[in-house]
Amino acid sequence: MKNDEAQQLRVFWEAKGNPPYDHPTIEKERFEEGGHTGFYVYTTCGAYIGPAGE
Ligand SMILES: [Zn+2]
Questions:
Q1: Cα of 29 from ligand 1 centre, angstroms
Q2: How many angstroms is it from 23 CA to the middle of ligand 1?
Q3: pLDDT tens digit at each of 54 positions of the chain
Q4: How far apart are CA 13 and CA 37, in angstroms?
Q5: Longest Cα–Cα distance in the chain
Q6: Measured in angstroms, how far is the CA atom of residue 47 from the centroid of ligand 1?
Q7: Torsions phi, psi for 24 (to 5 deg)
Q8: What is the 21 CA–ligand 1 centroid distance (Å)?
């Protein structure tokens, strides 16, 4: 998932009031050019996983 997509998901999810849900799927967060940012994000809400996230 591109980092700007993850950002959009976070804004979208926040606007919905961060409703609870399962976090079944994660993806590498990638830069526009395709490189790995070093982070992983949830594909549903865009939240970072681990120390930077939930
Ligand atoms: Zn989440």
A1: 15
A2: 6
A3: 999 999 999 999 999 998 988 888 999 999 999 999 999 999 999 999 876 555
A4: 21
A5: 32
A6: 5
A7: -75, -25
A8: 7
DSSP assignment letter at 47: P
Alpha-carbon distances of 22 from 25, 26, 31, 35, 44, rounded to whole Å:
9, 11, 26, 27, 9
Alpha carbon of 34 to ligand 1 centroid (Å): 23
Spatial distance between the Cα atoms of 18 and 33, rounded to a whole number of angstroms: 29
Phi, psi of 6 (to 5 degrees): -60, -40
Ligand 1 geometric centre to CA of 32 (Å): 22
**Cα of 1 from ligand 1 centre, angstroms:** 15
- Global confidence as pTM: 0.80
Cα–Cα distance, 28 to 13 (Å, whole number): 19
